[in-house]
Design a protein that fits this description.
The complex is a heterodimer of chains A (294) and B (578). Chain A is an alpha/beta fold and 294 residues long. Chain A has ten helices and ten strands. In chain A, the strands form three sheets. Chain A has a six-stranded mixed beta sheet, with helices on both faces. In chain B, 26% of the residues lie in helices and 30% in strands. The chains are: A alpha/beta (294), B alpha/beta (578). Chains A and B meet through strand 8, strand 9 and helix 9 of A and strand 2 and helix 2 of B.
């Protein structure tokens, strides 16, 4: 099946019909890796060792431009890979993640699970220790970072076993994470970010301060980006009793601007603190989402 | 401002529909889960004022849209100084369509009347249901009616045989519209405006009444017509009338009972005499005919005359007829209007008492008052049902049967009264009052007696001293004595009507056109302005000036444009401000 179609480039909802998380994630990763022919995460946790002369076929990004400028000679930098990169994937399992704007799409949670599984598989194939934390208003599931065989299955089991939660309090999960990540490593937060931004950023800043690479994947349903619906509707927050009556048609433009501002605010705040931020819609093929991380 | 359809204003209640819909449609909306509620609340909070303004603006626009459409349907009318294609307020309009005989003139192949009818239609077509309308035709009668009825009348109208006195017609029409309680009053004069159509004096136009008249033609159309025909002394005198500038002579033919009996050349303004052939006694009908020209109606005129032997009149001085009667009879005898040698076999005897042997006695009062009783007894002996009574008051003669003596002063007279008692019951010939003074009989025909209230003497009446005296005596002995009525000429379509009594023809009425209609000289605009107090306008100006006094501009078009603008703005607000 994967020989015929690139799972990583198909519509996520269509891909999800081929099987469970494992199959989907494997298919996605296979397609993704065959597309780029190298590990997308090389150099994440490696350290420089020596120079050698440039040979045709070497990637230009490893050229030492300073030497080229001083001596007019082409040298490439060689790195020594660190052993046991520790990556932790945080998946938001709150009630809001269990929502989708149309039956033809995956819920944000389903999309996040498959994306996290694929990411974990890639990391484990690189022999990186990879762990998982799922959370809503409390931490629901913790799979410590390991590299041993069967780790990916445990990670997938952890995703599957986590039910849809209630509210969202990422701060608690992030604080818990600091105790689980003793060494510097990679932290990937997959969430719809529908929680207090300042509190979450405080925790993320702390991780960054501890030397972790932090990546935030902001998952959003397309129906959350653009408002539409009946002439008048009462929208209710699935995580609280709050509701509001709106006329989608007359508020659509203002809502779209608000969403755009919110995304920009997250992106700006993350960039300010050296945190990578990526906005992902649930109709985006998994391969494209993974490519954002490369 | 007025409304053409004020009932449509009821629709203004519909202006409440948007507000009512807003209130009635506040139902419970459907519910749906929506995780990013915080974004939604933020967007709504930031746009609350704009949304409120938008809702208010939409409500106002929709309400205004309905109001504008309803107002447009009610057809609001605003005063304006120009009429053009716009409407007008209630107006009293008297339309004078001059279809007198001169309107039958053919110009460039079309009768003038057709052009006048088109213009008249234009006035009536512009009228509305709120106008009061009258149509005055050549007969001078003001016909009230609806626009449609009067349009139908105009369409069916033809050239009339009656002359219209425009001065009198305009004055009467102006008084008519002036009595109407409407904001505007107009009189439209649609006429060829020949000079002779303007009567004497000036039309009295009340303030506030506009009189619009068409500009008269600049040139007089040449025309000749038979103005009058009269038979005297064995010849027919034919008077030719027409436009003075018409040059050259034209042949005029006299026909009797369809047979041509004479012909002569005549110019406009002249009178020609055509000798009649010898005819037997009786009533004769003839006609004088001109060659056809552009106005056909006046090219022919009928005439009627009576051929009879002159009456043999006996009026000896001893009979008390008086010297003036004797002198008149002498003149008439010279003209062979009466025969002498009356005596016992006279047809008519004139005296102060009935004469035995005469077929008809003309009785004048005796000079001596003491002889009145004797005269009355003699009348009674002849079966008379009238008698001479006491002295009457002086006055003027009124005599339809003898128009020539009407207005002549009578200074002394006896009242003529019907007898009472058995004499009044006597069967006999009919009785006719032929002339009156102060409303009392002055000349009465009673069977074989013609009874006068005054002697034919200047001490009694001015009649003997007037030119009408000889014709009066002529009529007295030749016509009145025979019980005949005068041959009268009446304006109308050419024809003859005979008057009969039993099997006898006693008179005739000859209908013909007014000779003034033949003169097609147009009145000058200045004269029209002066006499009719009218605005003299050419056809285009006339069309533009109609109803200008109460001109109203229909604002419904503007309102519809505004409604369209409202709709467009509403559409823009509803779609662009989301």
């Amino acid at each position: 099946m994967a020989d015929v179609q690139r799972f990583d480039l198909l519509d996520p909802a269509e891909v999800a019909r081929f099987g469970g998380i494992e199959i989907v994630a494997q298919g996605v990763v296979e397609g993704f890796l065959s597309g780029i022919h190298r590990s997308p995460f090389r150099g994440f946790s490696v350290e420089f060792t020596e120079h050698r002369a440039y040979q045709p076929g070497d990637e230009l990004r490893y050229l030492d431009w300073k030497i080229l400028a001083r001596a007019d000679r082409l040298f490439v930098k060689q790195f020594e890979q660190e052993t046991n990169l520790r990556a932790m994937i945080l998946v938001d399992a709150s009630r809001s993640m269990a929502w989708r704007g149309a039956p033809s799409r995956l819920t944000k949670r389903a999309y996040a699970d498959r994306l996290a599984a694929a990411l974990a598989l890639i990391l484990l194939r690189q022999r990186d220790a990879t762990g998982l934390i799922t959370f809503d208003d409390v931490v629901r599931e913790v799979v410590p970072a390991r590299v041993k065989a069967g780790q990916w299955a445990r990670l997938v089991r952890g995703l599957v076993d986590t039910p849809d939660g209630l509210g969202t309090a990422a701060q608690a999960a992030l604080v818990r994470l600091t105790s689980l990540l003793a060494r510097r490593g990679l932290v990937v937060l997959v969430s719809d970010l529908l929680f207090d931004r300042e509190l979450a950023l405080t925790a993320l800043r702390y991780l960054r301060h501890r030397g972790h690479q932090v990546i935030v994947l902001h998952v959003m349903d397309p129906a959350e980006a653009e408002l539409s619906g009946p002439p008048e509707v009462r929208y209710r927050d699935p995580e609280s009793a709050a509701s509001v009556v709106v006329r989608p048609r007359e508020l659509a433009r203002a809502y779209q601007a608000t969403v755009r501002r919110e995304v920009d605010a997250w992106r700006t705040a993350c960039r300010r603190h050296g945190i990578a931020y990526h906005h992902i819609l649930t109709d985006m093929p998994f391969g494209m989402a993974l490519r954002l991380l490369a | 401002m007025t409304f053409l359809h004020p009932l449509a204003l009821v629709g203004l209640a519909a202006a409440a529909i948007p507000a009512l819909l807003h209130l009635l449609e506040r139902r419970v909306p459907p519910e749906a889960l929506f995780p990013p509620l915080r974004y939604l609340s933020e967007a709504e909070r930031q746009n609350a004022r704009r949304l409120k303004l938008r809702h208010l603006l939409l409500l106002l626009l929709r309400t205004a849209l309905i109001v504008l459409i309803v107002l447009a349907a009610a057809r609001p009318l605003f005063p304006t100084q120009t009429s053009g294609g716009s409407l007008h307020g209630p107006t009293a309009l008297a339309l004078i369509l001059d279809n007198s005989p001169s309107s039958g003139l053919v110009v460039d192949g079309h009768p003038v009347l057709e052009r006048l009818k088109l213009i008249a239609r234009g006035s009536l077509t512009r009228a509305t249901a709120s106008d009061r309308l009258w149509l005055v035709l050549g007969d001078g009668v003001a016909r009230a009616g609806t626009r449609e009825a009067l349009l139908a009348t105009v369409d069916s109208v033809g050239v009339s045989a009656r002359r219209l006195d425009l001065t009198a017609a305009v004055g009467a029409a102006a008084r008519l519209v002036d009595a109407e309680p409407v904001p505007a009053r107009e009189v439209h004069v649609v006429s060829d405006l020949q000079r002779t159509a303007l009567g004497p004096g000036r039309a009295a136009i009340p303030r506030g009444v506009r009189v619009l008249a068409l500009t008269p033609p600049s040139q007089a159309a040449p025309n000749r017509g038979v103005g009058a025909v009269r038979v005297t002394d064995g010849a027919a005198a034919v008077g030719i009338v027409g436009t003075p500038a018409t040059g050259g002579a034209a042949p005029v033919t006299l026909r009797i009972r369809g047979r041509e009996v004479g012909r002569a050349l005549a110019t406009a303004g002249s009178t020609v005499s055509i000798t009649l052939p010898s005819l037997g006694p009786g009533w004769w009908v003839g006609e004088a005919v001109l060659d056809a020209d552009e106005l056909r109606a006046d090219d022919r005129r009928l005439l009627v005359w009576r051929m009879a032997p002159p009456a043999r009149v006996a009026a000896p001085p001893s009979a008390g007829g008086g010297p003036f009667v004797a002198a008149a009879l002498a003149v008439l005898e010279q003209g062979q209007r009466v025969g002498g040698g009356g005596g016992e076999g006279a047809d008519v005897a004139i005296g102060d008492r009935p004469q035995a042997g005469a077929r008809v006695s003309v009785v004048v009062p005796p000079a001596e008052p003491a002889l009145i009783g004797q005269a009355d007894r003699a009348l009674a002996a002849r079966g008379g049902r009238w008698r001479l009574a006491g002295a009457g008051t002086p006055g003027l003669i009124a005599a339809p049967a003898v128009p020539a003596i009407s207005g002549v002063q009578v200074t002394r007279r006896y009242r003529i009264e019907p007898v009472t008692g058995d004499a009044a019951q006597r069967p006999g010939n009919d009785t006719t009052v032929l002339a009156t003074v102060n409303g009392e009989p002055w000349l009465v025909r009673d069977g074989g007696v013609l009874l006068l209230g005054s002697r034919l003497d200047t001490a009694w009446t001015a009649l003997p001293a007037t030119p009408a005296f000889v014709p009066f005596v002529d009529a007295l002995v030749n016509r009145l004595a025979r019980g005949e009525a005068p041959i009268s000429e009446v304006e109308g379509a050419p024809r003859v009507e005979f008057q009969t009594r039993g099997a006898d023809t006693i008179g005739a009425i000859v209908y013909g056109l007014d000779p003034r209609e033949s003169d097609l000289t147009p009145a000058s605009p200045a004269l029209v302005r002066d006499v009719l107090d009218a605005e003299v306008l050419d056809a285009a100006e006339f069309a533009a000036a109609r109803f200008a006094g109460a001109g109203r501009h229909d604002a419904s078009g503007l309102l519809l444009v505004l409604a369209l603008l409202c709709a467009l703005v509403e559409l823009g607000v509803a779609t662009r401000t989301r």
